[in-house]
Amino acid sequence: PGSLGATDLFLEAAVLSLHDPERSRQLRHAGRAPRGPAATDPGPAIAALGGEGLRILTGPVTSPTTARLIAAVLERHPDARWHQWSALAEDTALAGGLGAFGEPVSPLHDLSRAACVLALGTGPLDHGPAQLMHARGWAAARAAGRAAGRLPLLIAVESTPGLTGARADRRLALPPAGIAALARALSAELGVAGVSGTHPEAAPIAAALRRAGPAALVVAGREQPAAVHALAHAMNAALGSIGTTVHHLPPLMARPEPCGASLRALAEDMAAGQVQRLLILDANPAYDAPAGIPFAALLGRVPVSVHLGLHADETALACTWHLPLAHPLESWGDCRAPDGSAAIRQPACVPRVAAALAAEDILATLAGLPERGAAVVRATWPALDEMAWAAALEVGVIPGTAPAPRALPLRADFDPGPAPPDPPGLVALFAPDPHLLDGRFATEAWLQELPRPLTKQAWGNAALVAPADAARLGLRDGAEAAFSLNGRGLRAPVIVLPGQAPGVVTLPLGGGRRLAGGIPGGTGFDAYRLRPAASPWVAAGLEIAPLRGDGAAVVRAGWRHPADARDPAPARSVALGEAIPSLPPLPSLYPEWPYPGRAWGMVIDLDACIGCNACSIACV
Q1: Is residue 431 a contact partner of residue 224, using CB atoms and an 8 Å limit?
Q2: DSSP strand E in 525-587: where?
Q3: For labelling, which of 78, 313, 347, 381 has a CA lying 20 to 30 Å from the CA of 430?
């Protein structure tokens, strides 16, 4: 239900991570690999977790089996606590649902039924868990619109050029405060009670949404504040879109909670000496925790810490123990699709690392349960008999597990709060890297090598600056600059990006890894050094100073940006009915190859292409 039979570039690149020779292959104790039988025996590490003061740190859990096992551990260890952390956690979206409906929701967007889509910030066609579903839905809407003689409209309002903005029929480049102001003005235009505001672009956009009616859709990006998410919900309710282009599902997280607050609570307990044992499952907070949380240093106050991961990363070497993690393609588990359907994950190959452990097996041991491997997942679904279990394995999805959408009315006391003032000076916008996300894919050479969709940068990241800001500050494309925010600083190269909102500097996350396997993870810069815990997406007060010298090299594929007025690329024009002139032959290092018979060919529907680069990784 989520992928619709397709793959994105992250799933394709998982083939390389499965066979990565730099995968963790043995246990580590105090940063070193034991010798002899102890090198493959996780028993002492798991046994050390038994006792008081136990904490478990995971990413946001949507797996029914993982949630069941954690609940069993907490029941067996009454003083234990469970924390969740992800650098890309959608805490503001969670708060936006609470503000709009009084309870958290997971909106499911159906672009196939949309006649007008408004994206506020990161859009539905940008990289994310539902990107494949959204891309297929938008292609279907375009095909239906062509047949009906009226194409659907896509409007993107963003601070940094993204895939949704590149595909949009109309795009506005606004700073975060401008996006929030436009959301308020649109809500007022659409009749949302208790909201006021004006914006010069509000009237025409509101008119387009009203024409679409229930076939309209308003989407807020993960980096938008809670008020914008709440306003997006309110606008969809006012347009009658709920039940047509958007469905409200129960939260996909087994325990919905703000991950930022959860990590801060864990850090406070560690600092107070209340954490005696800490189990970290496939997370790397020593690298991606906000700048105000010194997680690596706090690990030194925990007597026993056990890390389970695919690589001996920054957190692994700061822990007492590190255990190699079984790859998702070689282990059992389950998960949920964006529509809430439960899917069984079964091994696609024999284990590539003999000492690797599944997180489910460690949790089952701590819970005192005997099941391992497939039996752990099987125990989560006792209602399935043998035939139903076999059928679910064949199909991959457990039927009837998708929750029914809920008709939630807007809160009677709905109030998005006062409009925040425009921040003075430059604003830092922290964003996931299009290919590395939060840094978890920094070890993927295929993804490092693949040029980013719009900057065409590979092997590293760079601060993205608007041309007007670059001219005002004396910044050169590709040169290095010094950045400071809240008393913290770093050096980073600059890319002058046409289409970037003036006054906004985008700092991509995921670069500057200190320990990233055999990949030069130090390429790029570590934006987490500046990212504040209180405002993890947008922070005012950024200062930039150009540096002398050539600085670090910025690796980019040869290109010309069509919106760059400084280097215009001539366009070829032909009259209606005139034949398109052929291009001159391009130089090549390869000789001509004769095709006496059938030749391989590939056809791309450019009306369905969103520029996600999945075809490039598939070709690799």
Answers
A1: no
A2: 538-546, 555-556
A3: 313
